[in-house]
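Lab notebook, bench 4. We co-purified these components, and the gel suggests they stay together. Before we commit to crystallization screens, I want a quick structural picture of the whole thing.
Request: model the full complex, all chains together.
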Amino acid sequence: MLTLKTIQEHPEEVIRKLQIKQFDAAGLVEQILSLDRERRELQAGNDLMQSELNRLSKSIGEYIRSGKNEEAEKAREETTRLKEQIKNRQKRHGEVEEELRNLLTELPNLPHDSVPPGKGSEDNVVVREGGHLPEKTDGLLPHWELGRRFGILDFELGNKLTGAGFPVFIGKGARLQRALIHFFLDEAIKAGYVEYLPPLMVNEDSAFATGQLPDKEGQMYALVQDRFYLIPTAEVPVTNFYRDMILDAEKLPVKNTAYTPCFRREAGSYGKDVRGLNRVHQFDKVEIVRIEHPDRSYEALEEMVHHVEELVKQLALPYRIVRLCGGDMSFTSALTYDFEVFAAAQQKWLEVSSVSNFESFQANRLKLRLRDPGFKKPILAHTLNGSALALPRIVAALLENNQKPDAIIIPEVLIPYTGFDRIELPG
RNA sequence: GGAGGAAUGGCAGAGUGGUCGAAUGCGGCGGUCUUGAAAACCGUUGACCGCUUACCGGCGGUCCGGGGGUUCGAAUCCCUCUUCCUCCGCCA
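Here is the predicted assembly.
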């Protein structure tokens, strides 16, 4: 959520910057500004009347204590009239405030100056590539075939238990999952992140604060009876730790990491790139989350990109880093880098990580602030997060890229975690 | 699941209808003293909204777990939800 102050002080800049995100904000901005004027007017009037009422109430007390019952009765009558007025105006004030809040939550975050213009993924800018693309790809099997052949991954079984998009990992396949999670967490801890194991369900307040509600409600699995939501990413619980908090600026940065399963309905995304592990409803992910001082959040973003890059490098996967264009960015992000790895059999780039700086957009909803001696009042913190990493597509690429006719070779860095260096055909 | 108790400022903890944003202690910040520090003493110490102001600031409003109610007036009374504690039952 943008702050009202930003909109009041730079309305034309807000409109111009949101154009880069392919968002026409002119109408909304105007509505917000006029509604805010109304809100302030109402409040000024209400405060005045409330002040008068408080004064009268006090005087009644004094009259009664000094035995002036007649005066007390007179003042009492006056308050009845005043109270009626206040009640009506307060109702309107409340409505205006709610409406204002609703409108504010409709505005996306402003893109950073370095965000390239563009409409969709074709306009994203590749900032760096690494690893080696496979030389020959003839005859390579896609990972869903490999999963079946090697007996490590079963989609039909998941279908039977739950439905499409809930794969079951078996034997060395399951072990590989666990190894990857362990490896990713160890690397994050080495880089100074504190590990958390949070709840996998959150309440409405949490879902609202990180922006899943109200817009992306349809993307989450809801537990209707208890009004909980299954988390679509660890970002939700781990960022919500800091809801309604004022942190000491000196105690920054906050660097947290968490492994969680993630649950996504993926409504409306059927039909394209959904085969196998490319898009599933439940998957494992290690997330990194940071809370930073506004002065150094972009420095932090670069550190996070570097961290994720080291992970894909160590896994020896061909990768590229793209800076998302305005039209392809998320609602809440100011700047996002996506990581893609190349899956040799599908001959496709698969997104495995998204690293973003939300600046103060998320902090404003969270009411996450910093006490900085340089400022009289608490200032909004900056929040960032990134996947480090999401498992299914990493597994897809590992299987496809490391396949031999009779085995799948495990990357060296994972062997201490898996306890084996290859997955062989079942006997 | 049953019975009882509780939720107050960064923390501890007083306050059971009016002058209470709230005693007191601790912590934090500033000062006196000191070569420096500690101790002691003095002062100060929340968030949000609005009006005002060149700035310092000033004025008004809201906030005592959340929501609703009673009352001229609520931290205090009533209803409701949430969380925590004690006891009993059940259970991994």
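The first strand of chain A starts at residue 125 and ends at 130. Worth comparing against the SEC data before the next meeting. Residues 4-104 of chain A form a domain with the Helix Hairpins fold (CATH 1.10.287.40).
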